[in-house]
What does this fold into?
Amino acid sequence: MAETQRRENPAAARLAAIRLPEDEAGWARAAREAALSRLHKMGLPSRRDEYWRETDPSALIAPEPVEAAPLVTDEAPVFGEIDRLKVVFVDGRFDPAASDPLALEHVEIERLADALKADIHWARDLFGRLEETAHDPVPRPFAALNTATATDGVVVRVRGRAPKPISLIYLHRDARSDAVLHHLVRIEPGAELTLLENGPAAARFSQLLEVDVAAGGSFHHVRAQGRDHERRAITHLVGRVAEGGVLKSFTLTANGALSRNEYVVRLEGAEAVTHLAGAAVGDGAVHPFHHDDTIFVTHAAESCESRQVFKKVLRNGAVGIFQGKILVHPVAQKTDGYQLSQGLMLDGDSRFFAKPELEIYADDVKCSHGSTCGAIDEEQLFYLRARGVPRPEAENLLVLAFLAEALEEIEDPALAEDIRNRLEAWLRRRQG
Amino acid sequence: MLEIRNLHVKLEEEDKVILKGVNLTLPDGEVHAIMGPNGSGKSTLSYVLAGREGYVVTEGEVLFDGENLLAMEPEERAAKGVFLAFQYPVEIPGVGNMTFLRTALNAQRKARGEPELSGAEFLRLVREKAKALKIDPEMLKRSVNVGFSGGEKKRNEILQMAVLEPKLAILDETDSGLDIDALRLVAEGVNALRAPDRSFLVITHYQRLLDYIVPDVVHIMADGRIIRTGDADLAREVEKTGYADILKELA
Ligand SMILES: Nc1ncnc2c1ncn2[C@@H]1O[C@H](COP(=O)(O)OP(=O)(O)O)[C@@H](O)[C@H]1O
Ligand SMILES: [Mg+2]
It folds into this structure.
């Protein structure tokens, strides 16, 4: 019976196999159970669902991950030159020996697993609470699955200006690893934090980041997803920004059989700001590359600003998906919304799909969106070559120029430089 | 330096013949001007010399220092010293002007087996050349030609020429859109580079530029051919009488 069920309905089998973690505080257990019941109601996704038509969720649903060989490389670690507090996870498990002591001025930082065992903890007001609000109107079952089952992560509360970034490092050693990480970030009024993430984490990786930015707080997020070719990842950034708060996120994706990055951000106080950006480069020649950014930004207060800048460079059958929505509530007058999604196709084999959506219920708003898909500009290429720049180098310069607008969303120059160097190195390796 | 023999060129995309047997010999150290009505094929000739795609050479040849120029990639031609100042310089958002120039210069030096310039050496070189052309240093920081006025774009072409120090510089209507002060600066930039081993092909619509860059030879181009060749006086004659008379004379 169980065998047939698994074969015929992997989603049902996966749901049936869920075991909630034991020995947690009552409130944590309750949050897990609530998430599980949400998940049972919405079910796991299939390609029939509107926002899963272009991305096949089956590898994320299957009981076991597809094997993914850890990438062997001798290049310098991402963010290696940045002074940061290192928090290391190996195949989705916190590694205290490889991490810095969890101490940083103005910041409380703790392992999620420990927080969930404490009978009284501030995390109670955040764990699963933002995720819970992220399903309306579009369900995000993997986020609920994450809340129900996440085994590790960090909880971070910031009360002032963090003196350096917290850097989450996701190492991947086991080709069959299946990691589920859940992080909570609470930025208290006027506080500031930069959070860095890098690495593949596991063969299959589910990550959920719940970020609560209080009035005047500011949260900067820069991430580089691991370059392991066969890795698969589903990530969620669920954010809430109060009056005058800022939430900015940038993601670099190079390689990966599957990256589905979802963003659900609500601007809840006047003059709140969110900038979401990403640069993805994929070459499907040897391994498949499928990258999907799915975004939902809600303007629920006056005079807020949102930007979405997502660029994808695709070659040899690589696939890039952008599904981005801006929802403007009737109260959200003077909204400034911007959305740009662009694909640069380096050959005729690749595929870029964009679904930009605006839903506006206020009348005094400025919202613009644009989506383009094109090849390298021949005039620009010739101009560079006519000045002596050889074709491959000229192409790389133009690819970097195409990505520049997304990279400009990274405020810190040293971080921007690091990301740019990664892209250059990636392009050079594929030059031919 | 440059030897164009019976050059016939048509468009790749359509069966339109543009150059119909161009002959031109440009010796070392000389400045030749090409004048002619709009649509006569001047820009096409300059693009073919620089190696732009989209053209088919159906007959004839071009020798550059004795080598078959048409067989080379555009970047090879540049490294060997061919430079085209574009009639319509191309905007490249996202590529900084300095990065562009430095990448170009070092790529050429590398191709010639010369050592690359360090950041400091390059900066010194560009600042000096930019100053002579009265180019605002702010302009150097912006993306290539983005937000430049017409005149700024043309001066930027001349700056590139000054930095790259080509052997053969082709200037395609670099004077158009320039006021008299800018025109003088551009001419000074060209004259400063005049040397026994450097030649110029100056394409212009107006004789005005040739008051400042005095050519050794003037060619008149019409309908894809060089129809007359003379000295600097020919330019003045054309200016006075217009092309109509010459064309009529020919017909
Ligand atoms: N890519 C092209 N497609 C179509 N027609 C072209 C193209 N390039 C040039 N031509 C035509 O060829 C002729 C010569 O153009 P051009 O070389 O620009 O002349 P000039 O620079 O002397 O004004 C013109 O009739 C022009 O319309
Ligand atoms: Mg022309």
About this structure: Chain A touches chain B through 23 residues (CB under 8 Å). Chain A is about 20% helix and 40% strand. The CA atoms of residues 110 and 155 of chain A lie 5 Å apart.
